[in-house]
Amino acid sequence: MFNNSSHIDASHSTFSEVHRDQHYNARPTVQGNQTINTIVHGNQILQDSHSNHIEALQKASAPSAAHDSAQRYPAPKCIEGTRIELLARISSWADEPDQKPICWLNGRPGLGKSAVSQTIAEKYASQKRLAASFFFSRRDLERRTTQHVVPTLTTQLLSFLPSIRPAVIAALENDYMIPMKVLREQMEKLLLDTLSTATETLDAPVLIVVDALDECDDESLVSELITLLALLPRKTSLPLRLLITSRPEPWIESHIHQPDISALTLPLEIHTFSAEADIRSFLRHALDDTYDQHLQVMIDVPRPWPSLDGLERIVNKTGGLFIFAFTVVKFVGAKTHNPALRLQAILEDTASESAGSAYADLDSLYRDAISTFPDPDVARLVLGLVYCMTIPMTVSGLHKLLQRPDVDVRLVVPTLNSVLLASEDGTQPIQFYHASFRDFLINPHRSQKYTINPDVYHRLMAQLCFETMSNSLKRDMCGIGNPARANSEVPDLAERRETAFDEALLYACCYWSRHLAQLPNDGVSNEALLSALNRFSTTVLLCWVEALSIFGKLESAVVMLREGIRWLQTLREVPGDTIKLFQSAERFVLFYMDPISQCALHAYVTAISFIPKDGVIYKTFKHQSLGTLLMQPPLSGYLANLRRDISLHNPIHSVVFSPNCGLIATAGAKQGVQVWSAITGGNVASLGDHSSTSLFVRFSPSGAFLAAAFEGGTVTVWDPKVGREHMKHESCHTETITCIEFSTDSALLASGSRDHAIQVWSVETAKPLYRLASHEGPVTSLAFSCDSLRLFSGSEDNLIISWDVSTGKLVRGMMGHRKPVNCIAVSKDQSILASGSEDKTIKIWDTSSGKCTRTLSKGHHTGIRSVHFFDEDKRVVAACDGAIISWAVTSRTASETIWAVEQFLKTTAQRVPSWQTKVLGWGAPTSVFRYMSHHIFDGTCPEHISIAYAHQSPSFVFAHMGYLHSGSLPTPTNNPPLRNKSTVTTVSISSDGLWAATGDPLGSLEIIDLTAKGRTWEELERSAKSDPLSHVGEIVPSPNGGRFILRCIFQWYLIDADYQIIKKILDIGVMESIRDSDDVKFKFSADGSIYFCVVPNFFNDNKSTIRVSDSVTGEHRAQFTGLKNVHSFVASADGAWIACGRGLGQVDVFQVASKERTNIGESNGSPIKVLVFSDEAQEIVGGSETGVVRVWDRASGECKATFGASTSMVTALAYAAGTPATADGGGARIAIGREDGSLCVWSPSTSASHDLVRGDQATVKHVDFVRFSDDQTRLTSRGEDGTAFSWAISFDADDTDMARCTRRTRQEGVDAHNTSLPHLLSRSDPEDTVDSLFHTAYRVRKDGWLVEGDRRVIWLPPFTRPHGKNTFYAYENGSVALCTPSSTWLFLRYVK
User: Fold this and answer.
1) What pLDDT does residue 1191 have?
2) Cis (ω within 30 of 0) for the bond into 970?
3) Percent of the chain topping pLDDT 90
4) Helix H or strand E segment including 852
5) How far is CA 1310 from the centre of its chain?
């Protein structure tokens, strides 16, 4: 859209965002050398993304689960004339309106339940009354999990009930991740909510069939699925009938017998409907057909065949199992054998080896069927591979995977067709006829010489997978070519994928880890398997990552790699190099999952560019890179322990791990509660109202419940495994909730609030028990005793109260703190309680008497934020803002400092490669560093420390002043920080102490690996010495991108576009830096020829010096000293003149070459806050604090014009000379932006002006930037939130038109056809970050992509993304440089 176009007027239109990368909002409009993202107002223009959403839904479904799927053909069904009584009973249930909505058909294996389901499904499909069906199968990966049930049913219901399509699309547009969420969220949003919108008239009940529910992997999810399926007839007005079949497994039976479900259910036991007559009829007709098909060999066999006695003997052998009868027919009717001889063998077989088994006759029949292939070893090999296949493969697919010239699967499978199901043309996957055959194969008493050992064949399958991938994978398998092209933008990607990946390769890529997972942990290695795995990992690992992106299964790569690591670690001789490569690959996929999942080829662009250059992945696969990224400072140490960085775009208030360490829950602004996989970082569930703000989130100790507190006093509890809301109480508090806690046994939940009250609930009944209201101040903290009989609360009333939770009565109060109690902790034996207070003390209490036994205060300089017992309750550790100290609980031994901020700063100073800091670090007392901690980070980091302790290990993590640290109690720690961010608001640690998670105000959730080796102080010092630019604090770019000025620790450097140092240009002392580093300001002239800086005097804040230097060489050119109260400064475009506004309205003008100084302006006016030179530097324009704008003649100092239409402070100015024909400059225009958000264009020669935005109408305050385009027809402005506006400004309009336009009201608007009048062209997305100088078409989208126009250049990890208006993009010599103030300053230069 709009590519290669200019002067686009899209007034009164809006471009809307579509999720992912199908289409992205805010296409740029390029104007001269400016770029603005176009979003203007009025009628909406929507890109049709409906097909994409439906495609995503279909992708998440299991087409093979439908009753008429090609993969199940020919599906088993009842032979005509059989099962008459059972089918009639089910039909009457389905047809009659007064029947219960659910029918549960159950019975043991082999009785024909699936055949009945298939027959019923086909019957009602022919009557247009089958709404949907799902046939579970443990042989099919997609059909043995509940994950695909709801998407599959929804996809089928879209065809049956077309009227629900808009509701389904709307749900997916609102959250396209629904198909990947927990089961309950899928059911509610895709079925329950959408079915209520159906408008079709249904004259009779319609049927949904769910078959073989017992073949689902997860028992607990089966129970949840039953509960959710029962909601369909209960929660919708549609006449639905639900047929469920399964074995009578205890977990299914017990759930269906629950009162709320049993009341809706008709149970049918299949064995109560006699099958003997049906089996006899089936055998008679089937064997008659066999006789007719083999007339040439049966001509001498008299009819009836078999005899009546023989038929009865076979019927008796079946034992009521239809599977036996089916197998007899298949075995006897094989094309290349004599039916009479085969039937006689069955009749004469005594099955003596397993005579005691109920399946003795069936086992004998199975052995006879296998023996038809002459080589038992080959037969066992093929059956073993089929047994171990994760999903069924076709004959040709398995043959290609096996790659054995001495074994032709295409010959073996047809011979075993009595027990294997496969089409003659080889297009249908191989499957066992019945699940009983699987049990037979692994039971040596039943299968005897045909027994298979699954371990052997899983090992072989894993080896075959690795060999297939190593032989077939390559870069860009689908020929996408352009790395900037998203997978979704390749229209024929499905066809390309089918061509590039045959069945064997597809299977190998997706399922190799499943076979490793089945291997025993016996430490036994296999040389062939290890060799194949090593070849795969060192040659095509990156290509495999690309392949999973193409398949849309990249998240599964993390699970697969972890499984590979787990198996490798079980070996007696651990292959360290291979494990290291797999571990690095896991972090690689985790960290770059977003860009690679969208653009497969960015595995070779973004990901390979950002990873550490000394890492094993880069060293192994750097030759596959599709680009070069220059990045300063290097991020090697920064990325070492970061597993995943997830951007939520809104502040995160709370983060917590589940007790089993598998989940992470977050609470924050406008996000409800989000649940994430700790392993993959994938979003598992979105809980609660996403428009509301959640404050706290907690898992119960059992992990069965997740509780959250919301603004407005609401508390909600969910079952996190299935996403079901268990409890919700609105307005249970009248003021903000401050804390929530579960009891140790997970039976109770308590919440405290600023309304002075505590609310206690029974988790089991989801009902409130007590409201405890004895505090006289806000409740700050809660803690349950280990036996869950006592609840302790701390408050701002300085009091601690003990409560009996069985009665809700106050046991005792504990008074002793002089200021608010911030935190409390209870020992495991619940005899001791520790409390921390704002009075800087920790008190130890005897819980039985309520007496304070000790008061600990030494070493704490601020209020106590956290207390925690450890070392079997012998010690307590307390954290304040700046120190973590441990104390013995009972003995009077000295305290031990675990960590102190002054020691951390002192060590940091000792390692900085600057003689000034080393002197300070080695010689200054700790009090100096305590002073520094209060001033260096003042206003940039949260005030309070945030700390978390692991429950099952001595590990802990804490964030302070933006640094994240870790340690292990009771050992003192002073290691380098794990991470460095601008702010961390919340931290959590897994119970095993292996992982940490942090949240910040920008919405970044980081998952951190605490086991990864961090850098030592010595390594950091060596890095800083070898690269003086390794710690960048600020970057100032020249307008043309040819030069940059960097602040590194206490020094400033001038560098070129290749990041090479030209000159060290300024040294700043340590104390001077502490006080005034932010006041040192650098600027370049517009042509980039000079740079100049204003440096304040350390001993006199009111005086400053301006230093001017050549930007090519860095040589000093001029210096102007003694400038008092400098408020603004600017250089002329050619760098010949410098002006500064100082004092009360005075302007000093300096000629750089002659060093002459001229004073203009007033000395008793208002401070000049903004200055700008005219194009030729003949005039100077200044804007004052009181809103007055003046134009001075530079040479004479005369004030030529004054404009004071507003009293709001001038914050931005731009000068345009106007038409060349106007010799005296009378055509000049000046754009004026103000603090109140107003924007106007002023003509100094005529005093006419036009308000583009009036102050009382401004939606964005503080205009900080205005700029005219090179052709002076457009004006760009930017507000304080980064939103940029583009305006059409015509210099052809006379001043009368400008004056008339000024008088128009907002309601009258602007005549769109009158192009001579200024008007709004576009407005950028404030979440996109554009060039601070508006020189280039580059921007960083909110999803992290650095783009040029619509072309993706590179994806930026969240911690590298710009969060401000100082981002600068430069394009030169085929490369793009990005200077961004994110959590740290980065200089990125990407070259294709």
Assistant:
1) 94
2) yes
3) 40
4) strand 852-856
5) 44
Which of 69-83, 499-513, 639-653, 1359-1373 is predicted most confidently?
Answer: 499-513
Q: What is the mean pLDDT of the chain?
A: 83
- CB atoms under 10 Å from CB of 1008, counted, come to 24
CA 61 to chain centre: 22
**Max Cα-Cα span within the chain:** 130
Contact by Cβ (8 Å): 237, 196: yes
Q: Calculate helix-pair angle for 339-348, 360-370, nearest 10 degrees.
A: 140
Question: Tokens representing 1230?
Answer: 């000046």
Token pair belonging to 6: 């200019």
Does a cis peptide bond (omega within 30 degrees of 0) precede residue 151?
Answer: no
Three-state secondary structure call for residue 10: coil
Percent of residues, the chain, with pLDDT higher than 70: 85
Q: What is the 3-state secondary structure (H, E, C) of 1313-1366?
A: CCCCCCEEEEECCCCCEECCCCCCCEEECCCCEEEECCEEEEECCHHHCCCCCC
Measured distance between the N- and C-terminal CA atoms of the chain, rounded to whole angstroms: 25
Round to whole Å and give the CA distance between 149 and 171.
17
pLDDT number for residue 249:
85
* pLDDT band for position 248 (cuts 50, 70, 90): confident
Of 304, 279, 276, nearest to 290 (Cα)?
Answer: 304
Has this prediction a pTM greater than 0.70? yes
Q: Is residue 1038 a contact partner of residue 1091, using CB atoms and an 8 Å limit?
A: yes
d(CA 1237, CA 1206): 11
Angle at 1352 between CA 1346 and CA 1353, to 5 degrees: 65
Of 186-200, 1091-1105, 1273-1287, 1335-1349, least confident by mean pLDDT is: 1091-1105
Phi, psi of 847 (to 5 degrees): -70, -25
861: phi then psi, degrees, rounded to nearest 5: -105, -10
Helix (H, G, I), strand (E, B) or coil at 511: helix
Tokens found for residue 839? 């009075």
Lowest mean pLDDT, pick from 726-740, 1080-1094, 1099-1113, 1162-1176: 1099-1113
With contact defined as beta carbons under 8 Å apart, do 145 and 218 qualify? yes
Burial of residue 1290, with CB atoms counted within 10 A of its CB: 0-12 exposed, 13-18 middle, 19 or more buried: middle
User: What are the pLDDT digits (tens) for 1020-1051?
Assistant: 777 777 777 777 777 888 887 788 888 776 67
Assign 3-class secondary structure to 599-648.
CHHHHCCHHHHHCCCCCHHHHHHHHHCCCEEEEECCCHHHHCCEEEEEEC
Q: Is the link from the previous residue into 339 a cis peptide, with omega within 30 of 0?
A: no
User: Residue 16 has what DSSP assignment?
Assistant: P
As a residue count, the chain comes to 1392
